[in-house]
Amino acid sequence: MGLPESERLTSILWEDIPPGAEYGPYEDVARHEDRDLWAEVYERRPDDEGATIPPGLIPVYILRALRLAFNGIPAGGVLARQTFTFSRPLRIGESFQTTIRVAEKYLRRGRPYVVLAFTIRLPDGTLVAESHKHLIWPGREPIGAHP
Question: pLDDT tens digit string along 134-145?
Answer without folding.
Answer: 999 877 554 444
